[in-house]
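SAMPLE LOG
Freezer: B-3
Tube label: C17
Construct: single chain, 501 aa
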Amino acid sequence: MINIPTLHLRRLGIDTYKESIIYMREDCPVCISESLQAQSRVKVTLKDRSIIATLNIIKSDLLDEGKASLSEHAWHQLTANEGDEITVSHSDPVESLSYVRSKIYGNVLSEQEIYDIIKDVTDGHYSDIHVSSFLTACAGGRLNKQEIIHLTKSMVDTGDRLNWKKKLVVDKHCVGGLPGNRTTPIVVSIVTAYGLTMPKTSSRAITSPAGTADTMEVFTNVDLDINTMRKVVEQENGCLVWGGSVSVSPADDILIRVERALDLDSEGQLVASVLSKKIAAGSTDVLIDIPVGTTAKVRTIEMGKWLSDYLVDVGKALGINVKTIITDGSQPVGRGIGPALEARDIVSVLKCEMNAPQDLRARAILIAAGVLEFSPDIKEGDGIKLATDILDSGKAWSKFQAICKAQGGMKEIPKALYTKSVLASQSGTIKEIDNRNIANVAKLTGAPEFKVGGVDLHVRLGDKISKGDKLFTIHADSQGMLDYVINYTNNSANAITIGKD
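STRUCTURE (predicted):
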């Protein structure tokens, strides 16, 4: 009988999000006997449970002899305890990686090949390097429509799928690229106040300073399991939760994490990401907002129409009714860019305050109207008045508070301790607000991880301003962070262009 060397676990508490990592000493007998090197993919076994992890080598006395450690994600996967005994060995070859290599060389993938890739991604058999290779191979229009259909279906089939046992379950989504466009909490509040079922699962930010889940986390708990999510929906007709916590399309959360690091959001992956979440969440009818602008994610009307056609066609192929609207993406929406600042704008719209950003209000009403018109009881064209009436009556604000309470309680919106305004260097007219640049400034404050970080906009396109007027205010959690962002804005291209009168 072969005597397999064992190691005992020590918990270091290293957070790698959803990446499984094992930490071992360079003089570890297992490393030496198995000829393991840094970045090797290894099989880690604890009793009757096994995972595939990436090896990181420790070249210090952080770990004692005979000890190993795991990232927090791997620790939870194995349900490990301090001192548990593990074995480590080479992992078996991952066959689906040959399909990734095939795609890199421009070949079309079959339905089974795509499913095998996504199944291995979901099961943790891919390292971040492998995932990034797959994402890159699929970017730049390299997925045809049939491949996108297969990818979407595979992402649904490798996770949980909710069934609400209702003929009509509505949802909405924005393809992104528009800072501050936080319409979802307002739309959900209007639609569920009317009585339609809208179980909203949202992503965290990929390349932006805040996603809907990041902003909702300012108000309440968004990490709900499926049973808790069901209770909230049964009680309030809807919810606002992070999709990653309910295991719908789990591969998407892994892909998004790597996309964030690559600052990549390809069209084909975008379609699969959006629709797999909606299908897995049990939606029957979905409205998708496609903002178009020169500095938005979708830059031309032609690309917007291409994306619209793909979303509608892929949805139809997989049994979901998709309706799209192409909207103005020439500038940010609302005033706040960053979780807490966007949360403030949401409340001001829901409470119908006089100083609420009217562009955010109008956009939310437009989208809510389109979602309400999925109902057979609402005629096309009647949605705008109905949505406006629900918002103005206070019913949407009451419903939002009720949803937050059902998800764990509603918290106060925090404020940044440190702020500094960027002033206009000349008089004139606001000619351009660069969505990507202003979003990058907000991200540099630490948003979305630091909820109070972000940017408050004081101008809109076409505004007449004088030298010394405030263009935007930077919000940060520390003086050091604020100084860093100010230095960036002083040494980079302007986020706001002022034209001389």
